[in-house]
Amino acid sequence: MSKGADIELVGVTKRYGAALAVDDIALKIPAGTYCCLLGPSGCGKTTTLRMIAGHESVSEGNIRLGAAVVTDLPPAKRGTAMMFQSYALFPHLDIVDNVAFSLKMKGADKAGRRARALEMLKLVQMDHLADRRPAQLSGGQQQRVALARALITDPQVLLLDEPLSALDPFLKIRVRQELKKLQLQLGISFIHVTHSQEEAMALSDLVVVMNGGRIEQAAAPREVFNRPATAFVARFMGDHNVLTGRVTEVTADSVRFEVPGGASFVAPAASLAGPTEPGAPIAIAVRTDRVRLADTAPAGCGLTGLVQNIEYHGQKVQLALAAPGVEEFAVQVPETAFFEKPLSVGDAVPLAWTAQDVHILRPPAA
Fold first, then answer.
1. pLDDT value at residue 58
2. What is the pTM of this model?
3. % of the chain with per-residue pLDDT over 90
4. CB < 8 Å & 24+ apart, contacts of 41-45
5. What is the pLDDT of residue 3?
6. Distance (Å, whole) CA 323 – CA 306
7. Residue 2: what pLDDT?
8. How far apart are CA 344 and CA 319, in angstroms?
């Protein structure tokens, strides 16, 4: 198999007894892609990664790497390598022997495997610490060693299980920059499991948002953020307000709907995924930074909410508000604008947005 193969999951399902962990997912990851599997705990992302690696069996469906079906192949025969969350370094071996271990298992001679291990350590900028033991390294340094050990087998795909979760916030930013640089340098696909939206947005060419064992959306980061497919994606990615209700009127240009509290809102008909009619359920998303404080709340594209909470975030101030029929609503106000006219908890605040800032969401799967 050539380097840089596409990865495709075709109707992949994973059951543990009666429990359904991954539910009939279909996904194609083009060669040379940095892909993040993103979602909350228990959504099926790590199980999916482990099935690609061969560390979990597939209950139904197939996994392809290039032209080859690898569903039933053992991990060592797939052309993939996995970097585990725990790093799993051998404490009694020095760094060179840790990295060279898989080559030793394949019968490579000592001089050859150690020379190759030093090449890999140089790639991750750890060759100067080659004679140390894992206990003498920081968490970030151990992670680089684990990365070098995974790459020494020359995989077509590198699989990473929450590789940044044990690092402090400052180191996370530095290491994720190094990961992206390394992926571009190697030209192979990285598939990276994370529950961090920020991490996925910063690293990915392709973000795959999972929920309940299903894929809610798979798209480029900007597409996922600006055009979330479902209410789950909009809420999970953050910085979106979601309004749900029932359609009351449909025209050539717009859709009007009502929320349970009786308030009525308008969305552009052009953003509808398909035909709809009065009485049908509908959900829309409006980014929190597209909502502005107003003198009055315009009909259809605004509301008046009571301030519930105020958080200072440096460049912006985030307001959490409540309104009839709206569970929660947030607004990002530029720092300067907020402190020119500061607000307090309990204040009634008119809010406004434009119809162009409204995105109609896909109904949840049955």
1. 97
2. 0.90
3. 71
4. 41/195, 43/210, 43/211, 43/212, 43/213, 44/14, 44/210, 44/212, 44/213, 44/214, 45/193, 45/208, 45/210
5. 61
6. 7
7. 38
8. 10
Q: Which residues pair with 241 in a beta bridge?
A: 286
Using the 3D structure, point to which of 226, 248, 274 is the last residue of a domain. Answer: 226
Q: Smallest Cα–Cα separation from 44: which of 190, 211, 205, 189?
A: 211
Q: Is residue 365 part of a domain?
A: no
Q: What is the domain range of residue 39?
A: 7-226
270 and 330 inside one domain: yes
Residues 18 and 94 both lie in one domain: yes
Using the 3D structure, point to which of 182, 202, 226 is the last residue of a domain.
226
Q: CA 209, CA 227: separation in Å to the nearest integer?
A: 13
Q: How many domains does the chain have?
A: 2
Does 1 reside within a domain?
no
Torsion angle (degrees, nearest 10) of CA 147, 148, 152, 154: 50
Could you tell me the CATH number of the domain that includes residue 236? 2.40.50.100
Distance, CA of 321 to CA of 303 (rounded, Å): 10
Task: Please tell me the predicted confidence (pLDDT) of residue 365.
Answer: 59
Q: How far is it, in rounded angstroms, from Cα 185 to Cα 196?
A: 24
At residue 128, what are phi and psi to the nearest 5 degrees? -75, -10
CATH of the domain at 66: 3.40.50.300
Could you tell me the two tokens for 9? 């999951």
Query: Do the Cβ atoms of 142 and 161 come closer than 8 Å?
Result: no
> Helix, strand, or coil here: 69?
strand
Least confident of 25-39, 184-198, 275-289, 292-306: 275-289
